[in-house]
Amino acid sequence: MNEVETKDVGTTDLSAYMMKVIEELRRDRKPPAVHIYACTLRSFIRFSCSGEEECSMPMQEVFTPGRLKEYEQWMLLRKLTQNTISTYMRTLRAVYNRWMPPGTAEHNPRLFDDVYTGVVSQTKRALTARQMEQLLEADLSGLSPQQQAVLAYFLLMFLLRGMPFIDLAHLRKRDMQDGRITYSRHKTDKPITVRIPREALVLIAKYADRHSASPYLFPILDARIRDSWQSYRNYQDALRHFNRKLGQVMSRLLPGVRVSSYTARHTWATLAFHSGQPVGIISQALGHSSLRVTETYLKPFGNELVDKANRQLIASVRKCKWKNETEYRAGL
C-alpha cells in the first residue's frame, strides 16, 4: 500500500473527498453526475449531522456495513423511493471504490451486500393508437400558444420514432437536411438518422425557432448559455416546464390520462411491438445500445401477447365445442 493510500485511510472526510470528486466532474463537463453526487452528499450530511450544516464524517466510519444500513433505514423512514435509495447507495459505492480500489487489501467487496442497490422497474404508461389519433387530430383553438407548442413537441417525439425529449431539445438546425434528421443520442452517443414524416414536417415548419442567432431547431433551450453546468440546469428547467404544460394539455384533450415527456417514446415502442415489428427494428429505431436493452425494455409486453394468444386459443376451443354440439343436435 503506498503512502497516499495509508494517509487517506481513516482520516479522509467524506464531505471533503466527495467535493473533490464533484469538482473533477465539473471540469469534465458531466453535469448529470455532478447533480447526483451533490444530492447524495447533501442527503448523507442530513443523515449524519442530525440537522447541522456540517460535521465530521471520517470515511472509515462511513463505509461500514452497520453505518450504511443505518443510512438506508433513515431514508426508508423518510419514505424515499427504492430507486432514490439505490441511486444514493450506488453513488456511495462508486466513491468507496474510488477511495479504496477493488483489489487492494483493505477493499471489502461485500460492503454493500446488505443495502439496496438494485433498480425497481417502473410501470411505464403508453397511449393507445386511438388516443394518439385524437392528439394528432385535436382542435387546438382552446389551447394557449405555449400549450400548442408543447403538444407539437410531444407529437414530434412520437412521429420521429420515439425521440427522447433531451434529444429533441438539443436538435440543431444543421441536423435537418434533405428530408432527414441526423443526430447523436445524448444517452448513448449513438448516431441516428430519421426520415421526417409529412405529419412532422408540418409541425416543424410551424414551431421551429425563427431566430437566426440560435443554433437550435426548436426554441426550447437558451442558446446564449455556454457553461456546461448552466446548460444542464437550463435543460432541467425546460423539462419541468414541458411536463407541467403537457399535463395541462392532456387534462383538456385526454382527461384522466397521465403522461410525461417519456410517454411519447414509450407509446411508439409499445405500438410498434404490438403491430408485429421485429425487436431488432424497434431497437434500431430507439437507438438502444444493444438488442438486449430493447428486450428488457419490451419484456413486460411479452406476457400481454401470451395472454392474448391464450384467450384466442380458449375462444377457438369454445367455438369448436359449440360447433360440434350444434352439428350433433342437427343430426338428431
UniProtKB/TrEMBL annotation:
One Pfam family matching this protein: Phage_int_SAM_5
One of the record's GO molecular function terms: DNA binding
UniProt key word DNA-binding: yes
Protein's GO biological process: DNA integration; DNA recombination
Keyword DNA-binding: yes
Gene3D superfamilies listed in its UniProt record: 1.10.150.130, Intergrase catalytic core
UniProt keywords, alphabetically: DNA recombination, DNA-binding
Family, similarity comment: Belongs to the 'phage' integrase family.
Name under which the protein is recorded: Site-specific integrase
Source organism of this protein record: Bacteroides stercoris
Source lineage: Bacteria, Pseudomonadati, Bacteroidota, Bacteroidia, Bacteroidales
